[in-house]
Amino acid sequence: MTSRFVRAAAAGAALAVSATAFAACSSEPETTPDDVITIFAPQDAAQEQNLDENAFTKLLEAKFDVDLQFETTTWDGTAAGEKRQISLASGDYPDAYMLIPWIDQFSSDELVKLGGQGVLMPLDDLIGEDTPNLVAAFEKEPGFKELATSPDGKIWGIPAWNDCFHCSYPSKLWMNSDWLDTLGLEQPTTPEELRAVLEAFKTQDPNGNGAADEIPLSATGGGSLLSYLMNPFIYTPEMGAEGTIPATLGVVGGEVAMQPTRDEWRDGISYAASLYADGLIDEAAFTQNGEAIMAKGNSAEGVIVGSAAMMHPWFVSDDHEDGRYTQYDAVAPLTGPNGSDATYTGGAAGAAPGATFVITNRSSEAKQKKLMQIVDFMVSYDGHVQGEFGVEGVNWVGPEAGDVALDETLEPNFKVLALPEGEGLNNSWGPIAQFFTDAEFRNSQVTATDVDTPEGYERRLFEATELYAGHESDELFPYWEAAVTGETAKELATIQTNVESFVVQAAAEFVSGVRDIESDEDWAEFQQNLTDLGAERYVQIYQEAWDASK
User: Fold this and answer.
1) What positions belong to coiled-coil segments (predicted)?
2) Coil, strand or helix at 120
3) Strand (E) or helix (H) holding 162
4) Position 18 pLDDT exceeds 60
5) Residue 477: its pLDDT value, please?
């Protein structure tokens, strides 16, 4: 076992152990009066959000004759997850949890475990005549109900359904079109054409300042970068060090396969490594955070980033006189030996198995009923728009003559207003209230037609994503259909975290030259590391679960 392998396994095991923090949960916590409901929720203090004094909180309290009291955490995923686990383990937990999926939410396995312990209350019998909007949403979008139903067949919580078109294709490449025009180049369509463009960015001074300060290709974390670069060689979902999804798995010949064991994966890594070796990829692409890449995108010295791999071009702000905000356009999937696949998340990209809302056994029957009515209100159009966006006439207004919906085939429904800095920030719950954002709701929002303005940013993303739609891979593994429960789920949690985090680390090492992708010895060592981490058992568990779901 190599030292690199040991470090990866230890890190994965540490992450897996944190999931056992629920064992100390008490089944008989103290309660509060029926007209006082306690809720654990993330609070965006950076945007001056105060849930206790929030305008939407006040609206709910008046509408449902209740006093809402909050135990809050941050929008930092690691800190939020730790605080939630501590809250549960202490036994002194609230009546309900209302979370944000991309920060921290309950996994399917957590729901079954906590439900079995009696900590969470089943919601099946609470969904009916008193929750007409939720029932209607389940009927309109059957996938929403499927997502809410745990592997044991019960509904222990409500997830957030967010049918986000641009989120469904997360691994995009954004390239500076002004630089292409300056150099007389076209957008690349193949891996080798991309290499030629990046070499020109590096050597031909496209920003015209006479200095060799151009960064041809940058990224954060490397997930989007490798996914975009490798899909022409082998289907590669966007990898994440957290190991929350089985990004290393694909489907080959109808069977679940470990993509990093295949020669095509080696070819894709070899291509990426050659770009890095030639100085065409930012040395910090695998390690820098969002703040670091924004510093480069917004450099006071001028435009220095030629392209960046990410879901959308948030690394450049709109306040530069040189107009760099408008210079970056999406590049369609490259065509290589494997075709022109794009990473696709399976639709409703903002949705993931598990739940953002649960009710605990601290909640009395009266509270349970009221909590479900509150969630049902947030599923309704009126509750949704007020909960997510704020006060009508202040944060949003209805459509006016000439307004156009994001999807121009739909009737526009509302328009979010740009407010003076610091105003109206504490009027909504934001994504906490985002329980049912189907395509009709999201794409009916009024959006400016000028994509080069901040007001037209969502349309810019919509139009860019159309380049990727239709490029879903035949090798995509629909892991969301493969439910794993009980002791097998515990086993899977450890293996998945270890395998996925290790592959992320090893891929970065191969690309940066710490490991030599051209060395048969290093490649064999990598394969042995995967075996030692349980890759074969990993595939077997998902294969059995997927077979059972058919």
Assistant:
1) none
2) strand
3) strand 161-162
4) no
5) 93
